Automatic annotation (TrEMBL), chain A:
Signal peptide: none annotated. This is Sugar ABC transporter ATP-binding protein. The keyword Cell membrane applies. Pfam families: ABC_tran. The keyword rRNA processing does not apply. Transmembrane segments: none annotated. It comes from Mesorhizobium qingshengii. Keywords: ATP-binding, Cell membrane, Membrane, Nucleotide-binding, Repeat, Sugar transport, Translocase, Transport.
UniProtKB/TrEMBL annotation, chain B:
It is a multi-pass membrane protein. It comes from the Bacteria. It comes from Mesorhizobium qingshengii. The keyword Glycoprotein does not apply. The chain crosses the membrane at residues 7-25, 37-59, 66-84, 90-111, 118-135, 171-195, 226-245, 257-273, 280-297, 309-327. It is found in: Cell membrane. Keywords: Cell membrane, Membrane, Transmembrane, Transmembrane helix. This is ABC transporter permease.
Length: 503, 331
C-alpha cells in the first residue's frame, strides 16, 4: 500500500553554534507504513524529531504534510496539524497524579475554545471514546502513577492519538518495556498501520525493528546514510550504514596476551539473559561493541561494583573478585571512566587538579590531611602525559573543550596503575584528534593491566582494540581478533540475527 | 582579570571595610576594643551555627533545624542542671549528644527515607520546638521554679557552666575576650582546615557538586551526607550551650533569630572572595558582616525593627553577587 508520501522532509539543516547537527536531511513517510529510523548517539535523530514536532526551529530546508507546507512554531501547532510525537521519556507524556480519563483528554483543557468549567462527566465520556477507538483496556478512573510503565506508555500514545494524527512519531518507545509489554505496543502499532497512519519509529532494538519495519532509514553524522525498502529488508546493511567505517586508519597490530588478568565465568547481568564468560589478558586492549541498550553499561557497572550480577563469578589474578561498591573495586585496582562525563565524571566545582586527584585522595593524604604538593605534581604530570590543552592545572573544567575534558577524565584514572581499566564510551563528544591521542595513550600504556572499552561505534573499536567482542541482548554473542576482521559476520552479530548464526 | 572579576572577588570585602569606615565616622565609640569585642560576642553563637550549616551546604543539603537544635540544647542544659541537679560536664555532654542524635536522624531521613532536605529539617525544627517544652509544660527553666507536679526545682547552673558564657580572657586589656568568641574562632579554624585541607572535606565538596561522580570515584556518599548533618547538629548544640551559659536560664522565648541569622551568614559567605560556594572563611566573614552592621545601626540609634530589613537587603545583595555576577551559581 505504498503510495505517495504523506509527509516529506527535504534538505533539513540545523546548527547549534558552530556545530552542524543536521546537514541536509531528506525523508519521506508513507501512509500505512512503519518507517524505522536508526542512528547512533549524536547522529541527529532527536534533533530531527524535535524540528518535526515543533520544539526546535529549523535552520534550512522544507517540510510538507499532505502536499501543504508544514512549518510548526510550537509543539501545539504540530499536533493540531496532525503530526504527533510520543517522546522517549514516558513520564513527559502523562501527568502522574491525575487519572487516566483526565490524561486522555488533557489537551482539551487548554487552548481557545476550552470550556471554563471542568466537567468530569464529559471528560469521562470523551476519554471512553478515545480508549475504545484504541482498544485500550485500562480502568479510566485509575491514577496514572499506579499504572505499570507499559500502561503509562499506552496512555501517552492514546493521548497522542486522540488528535487523530496523520503522522505519528514514536521515539524509542520500548526502551523501558519488557518484551511482553512491548508485544502489546506492537499490536497497537499494527492496528494504527492498518488505519493508515504514517509512523516514524525510532529504535535501536533489532528485535523491534525486525518485527515492525516496512522501511529502514539509517542516519549517521547528521545525514541519511542509507534507505532500505526492498523486501526482505537488509538489516545488516542498515546497521552498517549507521555504524560502518567511514575512514580507514592505520591498521592496528593486534597483540595476544599470555597471562590472564580477569576471568569472568557465567555472569548474568539481566533476567533471562544468557550468561557471559570471558577472559581479559595482561597488556590486551579489548573492545566490547553493540547497539545502545544491549547491556554494555550494565556490564561495565557490574565489573566496577556499582551493580550486582544475578549469577556468576569473577576471578582477578587468581583471587575471587566480587566488589560490593565502587570503593572496593578501586581498592582492587579496577578503574572505570564512566559514560557521559558531564553527569558521572566531572565535578563542576573543581579545577583540573582536583578532578584528577578525586578517586585517590586517600593515597594522597596523610592522616586525612591532603598532600597538596603531591596533588599538584600528579596533575601536572598527567596534563603532560595526555597532552591536555590548558593554561594550568588550576583551570576550571568548563573552560576546556569536550576532548580535553575527556582527557582529564582519562588522566584521572591513569594517575595510578590499574589492574583492570574500563572505559565506557570514552570517545563520546570527543573530536577526532583527542580521540586518537587517548587511543594511542591507552595502547602505549597497556602493559601490566587489562584494558576494556565499551563503544557503540565500530570505528572506535577497530581503531583501538586487539580483540573485539560483540554484545547483543545483555550477553556476548561474538569475538573477533582485530586482524582481518570478518566485518559481515561482525555486523550480523551486532544486528542480532538468529542465535545459531552468532554463536 | 577584568574589572568584573575584581568586583566579584573583592566586592564584599571592600563593602565590609567601607561599612566599618562609615560607622567609625558616623557612630561615636564604634572604634574601640570593647566595641569590637561586643560585635564578636554578638555574632559568636550565630557564627557557630552558621559554620555548622556550612557543612550541610557543602554536601548540597540544607539544615533548617539548627535554630531549634540550639534552643533544645539550651533547655536541656537548664533541665539537667536545675531539675536533675547534675553538674556542668553532664549538661555539656547531654547537649552534644542531642546535637549528634538530631543530626543522625536528619541524615537518616534525608539519605535513607529520601525526604527532601528542606522538608526533613523543617519537620525536625517543628518537632524540636514542641519537644523542648514538654518536660516543663511550656515553662522557662530557672532555679526555684515550680514544676508541673508542684515540687520546686532547686538545682542551679554550675559556676563552671556559667563561665562558658561570662568569663572573659585578658588580651592586652584585662577581661576583654569572652569564652564564646574563643569557641567561635577555634571552631572556625577547625572547620576551615577540615573543609580545605583534609580529604574528607574535599570529598564533601565533590558530593555537593556531583554526587554521582563522587560515588563513582569510590566515595561513600551516604555516609558523607549523614556526617554533614551530624556536624551541623553538634555545632548547633554548642551554640545552644553558649546561649544557656550566657542567659543563665532556660528561656523558651530566646533564640528566635538564630536560624535566620546563621543561614544569612553562611549564604553571604558564598560571595566572599568570589568563592561562589559554601566555605568556612566566607561564613565567618558573613557572620562578622551581619554583626558589624547591626552593632553600627544600634549605635546610630536605628530602631530595632529596621534591623531585620537591613539584614534581608544584605543577604539579597550578597546572593546577587554570587549567582548573577559570577555566573557560576548553577552549572
Amino acid at each position: 500500500m505504498v503510495g505517495s508520501a504523506v509527509f516529506r522532509v527535504e534538505g533539513l539543516r540545523k546548527s547549534f553554534g558552530q556545530n552542524e547537527v543536521l546537514g541536509g536531511v531528506s525523508l519521506e513517510l508513507h501512509a500505512g507504513e512503519v518507517t524505522v529510523l536508526m542512528g547512533a548517539n549524536g547522529a541527529g535523530k532527536s534533533t530531527l524529531v524535535k524540528i518535526i514536532s515543533g520544539v526546535y526551529e529549523r535552520g534550512g530546508g522544507t517540510m510538507s504534510l499532505a502536499g501543504q507546507d508544514f512549518a510548526p512554531n510550537t509543539p501545539a501547532e504540530a499536533i493540531r496539524a496532525g503530526v504527533v510525537t510520543v517522546h522517549q521519556n514516558i513520564n513527559d507524556g502523562v501527568v502522574a497524579d491525575l487519572d487516566v480519563a483526565t490524561n486522555l483528554t488533557l489537551d482539551r483543557l487548554s487552548g481557545s475554545g476550552a470550556p471554563f468549567l471542568f466537567n468530569p462527566a464529559r471528560v469521562r465520556r470523551e476519554a471512553k471514546a478515545v480508549a475504545d477507538r484504541m482498544g485500550l483496556a485500562i480502568d479510566l478512573k485509575a491514577r496514572v502513577s499506579d499504572l505499570s510503565l507499559a500502561d503509562r506508555q499506552m496512555v501517552a500514545i492514546a493521548r497522542a492519538l486522540a488528535h487523530q494524527p496523520k503522522v505519528l512519531i514514536l521515539d524509542e518507545p520500548t526502551s523501558s518495556l519488557s518484551s511482553a509489554e512491548a508485544d502489546r505496543l506492537f499490536a497497537l502499532v499494527d492496528r494504527l498501520r492498518e488505519q493508515g497512519v504514517a509512523i516514524l519509529y525510532i529504535s535501536h532494538r533489532m528485535s523491534d525493528i525486525r518485527r515492525l519495519a516496512d522501511r529502514i532509514v539509517s542516519m549517521r553524522d547528521g545525514v541519511i546514510s542509507g534507505v532500505f525498502d526492498k523486501k526482505p529488508l537488509d538489516y545488516e546493511g542498515a546497521v552498517n550504514a549507521m555504524l560502518g567505517r567511514k575512514i580507514h586508519l592505520d591498521q592496528i597490530v593486534a597483540r595476544d596476551s599470555a597471562k590472564a588478568i580477569l576471568t569472568i565465568d557465567g555472569l548474568r547481568i539481566a533476567p533471562g539473559a544468557r550468561p557471559i564468560s570471558l577472559t581479559l589478558g595482561d597488556g590486551e586492549v579489548v573492545a566490547i561493541t553493540g547497539l545502545v541498550g544491549v547491556g554494555k553499561t550494565a556490564l561495565a557497572e557490574t565489573l566496577f561494583g556499582v551493580r550486582r550480577p544475578l549469577a556468576g563469578t569473577m576471578t582477578m589474578n587468581g583471587k575471587p573478585y566480587a566488589p560490593g561498591s565502587a570503593g572496593e573495586a578501586i581498592a582492587a585496582g579496577v578503574f572505570l571512566v564512566a559514560k557521559d562525563r558531564a553527569t558521572s565524571g566531572i565535578v563542576g566545582g573543581f579545577n583540573i587538579e582536583r578532578n584528577v586527584s578525586l578517586p585517590f585522595l586517600r593515597r594522597m593524604s596523610n592522616l586525612g590531611v591532603l598532600k597538596r604538593r603531591l596533588e599538584r605534581a600528579t596533575a601536572r604530570r598527567q596534563i603532560e602525559e595526555l597532552g591536555i590543552v590548558c593554561r594550568s592545572e588550576k583551570d576550571e573544567l568548563a573552560s576546556l573543550s569536550g576532548g580535553n575534558q575527556q582527557k582529564v577524565m582519562v588522566a584521572r584514572w591513569m594517575a595510578q596503575d590499574a589492574t583492570l581499566f574500563i572505559l565506557d564510551e570514552p570517545f563520546q563528544g570527543v573530536d577526532i584528534s583527542a580521540r586518537r591521542d587517548i587511543a594511542a595513550k591507552l595502547r602505549a600504556s597497556a602493559n601490566g593491566r587489562a584494558t576494556l572499552l565499551f563503544v557503540t561505534e565500530l570505528d572506535e573499536a577497530l581503531e583501538t582494540a586487539d580483540r573485539i567482542l560483540v554484545m547483543s541482548e545483555q550477553t556476548i554473542v561474538g569475538a573477533h581478533r582485530n586482524a582481518e576482521v570478518d566485518l559481515d559476520r561482525l555486523l550480523a552479530e551486532v544486528a542480532g540475527g538468529p542465535l545459531h548464526n552468532a554463536a | 582579570m577584568t574589572l568584573r572579576d575584581h568586583a566579584i572577588r573583592y566586592g564584599f570585602i571592600v563593602l565590609l571595610f567601607g561599612l566599618v569606615a562609615y560607622f567609625a565616622i558616623a557612630a561615636d565609640g564604634f572604634v574601640s576594643p570593647q566595641s569590637a569585642v561586643f560585635i564578636f560576642q554578638s555574632v559568636a553563637i550565630t557564627g557557630v551555627l552558621a559554620l555548622g550549616v556550612t557543612a550541610t551546604l557543602v554536601v548540597g543539603g540544607f539544615d533548617l533545624s539548627i535554630g531549634s537544635v540550639a534552643t533544645s540544647a539550651m533547655m536541656a542544659a537548664a533541665y539537667v542542671m536545675v531539675v536533675l541537679e547534675q553538674n556542668a560536664v553532664v549538661a555539656v555532654v547531654v547537649c552534644l549528644l542531642i546535637g549528634a542524635i538530631v543530626g543522625l536522624i536528619n541524615g537518616w531521613l534525608i539519605v535513607y527515607m529520601r525526604v527532601p532536605d528542606l522538608l526533613a529539617t523543617l519537620g525536625m525544627m517543628f518537632l524540636l520546638v514542641g519537644l523542648q517544652r514538654i518536660p516543663t509544660e511550656g515553662r522557662s527553666i530557672a532555679t526555684g521554679m515550680t514544676m508541673p507536679d508542684g515540687s520546686v526545682a532547686n538545682g542551679k547552673f554550675g559556676d563552671a557552666f556559667l563561665a562558658l558564657g561570662r568569663h572573659r580572657f585578658d588580651f592586652f586589656i584585662p577581661n576583654l575576650i569572652p569564652v564564646s568568641v574563643v569557641v567561635l574562632l577555634v571552631l572556625a579554624v577547625l572547620i576551615w582546615f577540615f573543609l580545605e585541607y583534609t580529604r574528607f572535606g574535599r570529598m564533601m565538596y565533590a558530593v555537593g557538586s556531583n554526587e554521582r561522580a563522587a560515588e563513582l570515584a569510590g566515595a561513600p556518599v551516604k555516609a558523607y551526607k549523614i556526617w554533614a548533618y551530624v556536624i551541623s547538629g553538634v555545632f548547633a548544640s554548642i551554640g545552644g550551650i553558649l546561649l544557656a551559659a550566657r542567659l543563665g536560664r532556660g528561656d523558651i522565648a530566646s533564640g528566635n533569630n538564630l536560624l535566620l541569622d546563621a543561614v544569612a551568614a553562611a549564604l553571604i559567605g558564598y560571595a566572599v572572595l568570589g568563592a561562589a560556594k559554601p566555605n568556612a572563611f566566607g561564613t565567618a566573614v558573613g557572620a562578622l558582616f551581619v554583626g558589624i552592621l547591626l552593632q553600627g545601626l544600634t549605635m546610630m540609634n536605628a530602631p530595632y525593627y529596621t534591623q531585620d530589613f537591613v539584614k534581608g537587603v544584605v543577604l539579597v545583595v550578597a546572593l546577587v553577587f554570587t549567582f548573577a555576577l559570577s555566573g557560576r551559581g548553577r552549572e
